[in-house]
Write a structure and sequence with these properties.
With about 230 residues, the protein is an alpha/beta fold. The protein has nine helices and six strands; from the N terminus they run βαααααβαβαβαββα. The chain has two domains: about 140 residues, Rossmann fold (3-Layer(aba) Sandwich); about 70 residues. It has a six-stranded parallel sheet with strand order 3-2-1-4-5-6, with helices on both faces.
């Protein structure tokens, strides 16, 4: 833990936030297609979505797009779950082209040096996360990793729990950064905390305290927030 008496807590999403790259999403689409013949074209449709060339109703990110496109051709919930777990196993095995945001390790070290507790919270299961973080020297930067977080429904309780464990009462001491507004930003803004929205697709969803198209765009705002007197 960065400190026994943190001044603030920052909750970080994993996919699309700490882990950058579209291959894990495409793995998901491929694993669906391998189990459901009618989903053979989903991977290409998701590539178009990620390139901004296709609109998928209700999809805030690539994972939502896979889910909705696959469900539309008859893929059931159990099949989607199996495909998703298979895709995470591929990430765990080191497949795919992914990276951390440029300068992330140093930025997290600065935040911890400012007595900010760092909590990674993701809807993903543990598989695919721990090895990925360790291989990029990021595992020791996180004070806590919460998997299967159940966002967005589970996010309000999660925020209350991490704030309580850190002994923080003032809303401004709680921040959250992620690329899905409903999951990562809306809940912390509703608590009068600080939301950092990675708006890759230019949705313009509000409210958010800070918005950028990449994690790197938000690094100055994160540093400014961490340095605020509390």
């Amino acid at each position: 833990m960065s400190t026994s008496d943190p001044s603030a807590v920052l909750v970080l999403d994993f996919d699309g936030t700490v882990c950058i790259g579209d291959d894990p999403v495409l793995f998901y689409a491929e694993e669906v297609a391998a189990r459901h013949g009618a989903a053979a074209g989903v991977a290409d449709q998701v590539r178009e979505f990620l390139a901004g060339e296709r609109h998928v109703a209700g999809a805030a990110d690539g994972y939502h797009a896979v889910h909705r496109l696959s469900a539309a051709v008859g893929a059931g919930q159990e099949l989607l779950r199996e495909a998703y777990l298979a895709s995470r196993s591929r990430l765990d095995a080191g497949e795919g082209d992914t990276r951390a945001p440029h300068g992330l390790s140093d930025a997290l070290a600065e935040l911890r040096g400012a007595d900010v507790r760092l909590v990674l919270a993701t809807n993903s299961p543990r598989i695919g996360i721990e090895k990925w973080l360790a291989s990029r020297d990021l595992d020791h930067r996180m004070d806590e990793v919460i998997s299967d977080a159940g966002k967005p429904a589970g996010m309000p309780d999660l925020l209350e729990q991490v704030a309580s464990r850190a002994g923080l009462q003032v809303p401004s001491t709680l921040g959250s950064i992620g690329d899905v507004w409903a999951n990562d930003v809306g809940p912390v803004m509703a608590r009068s905390g600080t939301g950092f929205f990675i708006d890759r697709f230019g949705t313009g969803q509000q409210p958010s305290s800070y918005t950028g198209s990449t994690f790197e765009d938000l690094l100055p705002a994160l540093r400014e927030w961490a340095a605020q007197p509390r």
